[in-house]
Design goal:
By secondary structure, the chain is an alpha+beta fold. It contains four helices and four strands.
């Protein structure tokens, strides 16, 4: 009985170690995620939802034009990139993430109009 309790109490520890190792692996495999003190912009794309992505591109280009220091570039991540999709728990396409120093500061998901995407970006980026 004591062994079972000990084994159960160690599960969270091993899950935490596994999570840390996966995070390090993702950071190593994707050098663009290693930028410090800079917004990293990721747009997760899927071929079945390309019709919904135009508003995201338009909003990103508008923000980049108006605030070039806030979004220097953005990365398109295809749904087939299972490591990043799993790491960032992408459930819906398109999904836009802005990451700053390894923290997600903006997460916008699904088929939205350009003004809603712009509002979310500006609200978080222009503080």
């Amino acid at each position: 009985m004591l062994r079972i309790k000990l084994a159960i109490s160690l599960i969270p520890f091993f899950l935490l170690l596994s999570s840390c190792s996966q995070n390090e692996e993702v950071m190593t495999n994707y050098p663009f995620l290693q930028k410090k003190d800079e917004n990293i912009t990721l747009l997760f794309s899927d071929d079945l939802f390309l019709h919904a992505e135009g508003n995201y591109y338009d909003a990103l280009l508008d923000v980049k034009r108006r605030y070039p220091e806030k979004i220097r570039s953005f990365n398109i991540i295809h749904s087939s990139d299972r490591d990043l999709v799993r790491h960032y728990e992408i459930q819906e396409y398109p999904t836009l993430l802005v990451i700053h120093n390894n923290y997600i500061t903006i997460r916008v998901e699904g088929s939205l109009n350009k003004s809603d995407i712009l509002e979310a970006l500006e609200e978080a980026l222009i503080k």
